[in-house]
Amino acid sequence: MRVICRPGVLLPPLIRAIDWVPVGAAAVVSLGLALVTTPGSAVEPANAMVTLRMAGVLLGAAAGFALVDAAAVTTAVAPVPRWLRQWIRTLLVAGAAAAAWAGTLLLLMVRLADGTEMRTPGLVTEAAVSLLIGLACTAVAVRQRPERIAAVIGAAALLVIAVSTLPYVEDVWPYPASPRWGEIHRAWLWVLPTPLLTLALAHRDVGR
Asked: Phi and psi of 205, rounded to 5°?
């Protein structure tokens, strides 16, 4: 049980076992989008927000691949519960995705038109919810089928959710000048506990 008290022991094998390619590719695409948004001219806040929202959904879809437990064989010999392994994976990939999204935000802020600013708190909330929903969808699929196809299913679920909200842009993805900006993002905050609870349930040891 000492391993449970020292999760740092698990970090090296889990870092090696995680499939970093999808989230790495998503990070490259996100940063690239920040560079090519309105090339040759200053970026308007509305265009920057579209780019950041695309990056959030893309990173959320890619992050789930880290939850496919390729380390199950190597960690089975130690008294390490599944929930601990999966939460460490979740924190590692969430940190990487958050760093990529923050880098995208910084690149866009440098290129903003003079005298404009981003409504950053609301955008951070959107990105966090997108990431957590992507992870939660994959966590549920991985619990049922611990294979790479589960991550594909989770990514597809997030993309379907995102696309299905497009007809309701003003109610879900408001523009900077929207008078309902604060109201809508309070609703985003209310959504936040749902994917967290889903992750907690999906990360339980199998059989519970």
From this structure: -60, 145
Are the C-beta atoms of residues 166 and 100 closer than 8 Å to each other? no
Full domain range(s) for residue 64: 2-202
CB 20 within 8 A of CB 66: yes
Count of domains forming the chain: 1
| Tokens linked to 178 | 């929207």
CB-based contacts of 136, cutoff 8 Å, min separation 6: 194, 195, 196, 198, 199, 202
Distance CA 59, CA 27 (A): 7
In tens, the pLDDT along 69-100 reads: 865 545 544 567 888 889 999 999 999 999 99
Within a domain: 17: yes
**CA 135 from centre of chain:** 7
| 208 in a structural domain | no
Structure tokens at 73: 């064989």
Angle at alpha carbon of residue 155, lines to 152 and 159, rounded to 5°: 135
Distance CA 107, CA 101 (A): 10
Q: Does residue 37 lie within any of the structural domains? A: yes
Whether residue 207 lies inside any domain: the answer is no
Question: How does pLDDT run across 21-31, given as a tens digit for each residue?
Answer: 999 999 999 99
Q: Which residue has the tokens 């695309």?
A: 54
Q: 0.85 exceeded by the pTM? A: yes
Query: CB within 8 A of 128, min separation 6: which ones?
Result: 192
CB atoms within 10 A of CB 105: 21
